[in-house]
Amino acid sequence: MTKALFFLWSVGMISCTVKNDSLTYDDLNINGVVLQQTTNSIVEKMGNPDTISNYENEMDNETWKDYRYKNNSLYFYENNLIGFELRNEHFYFYKPEIKVGSNIDIIQPFFPNSYKNKGFVNGLGFIIIDIENGKDKSSDSFVVLNYNTSTNSITSIHLGSK
Q: Torsion over CA of 25, 137, 131 and 49, rounded to 10 degrees?
């Protein structure tokens, strides 16, 4: 867990110093579902999850609900979708062609600055897309697309914060 926290902190620090592309919360979607939807609206659109468990968010000292769909996590706090971690090709991020297993080069036309600012930590490649609260209003959230630097395949996509 300490390595994961250090990695997210490192990514957050890099995101603070480099101008990346950004999305608004309204544009941020998983399979067409935007953040801040309720558990009921997610279940209506995606069906019942395979499992539901508690997820301890140590950074915020909160307990979230982890709705697992084919090993992909949708995180809820106080009944609202607040985060995600995509681990396989069953879900897409933003556009149907951006999903785990896709070549990282698919990102370039949609997020050219973020693509240009690709980074590497411990042999893992990553691209950061900042999240804005609205027009020109920054937030402390960002999306991280991790990829295998040998194959250039996206290995995971998740929401992080600085």
A: -30
Q: Which residue has tokens 């080069």? A: 105
Output the pTM of the full model: 0.83
| Six token digits for residue 145 | 């697309």
Segment (H or E) for 72 = strand 72-77
Q: What residues are paired with 33 via a beta bridge?
A: 30
Please list, residue by residue across 87-100, b when 16 or more beta carbons sit within 10 angstroms of its beta carbon and e when fewer do.
beeebbbbeeebbb
Task: Quick: pLDDT tens for 54-83.
Answer: 999 888 899 999 999 999 999 999 999 889
Give the phi and the psi of residue 31 in degrees, each rounded to 5: 50, 35
Closest by CA to 118, choosing from 11, 8, 33, is 11
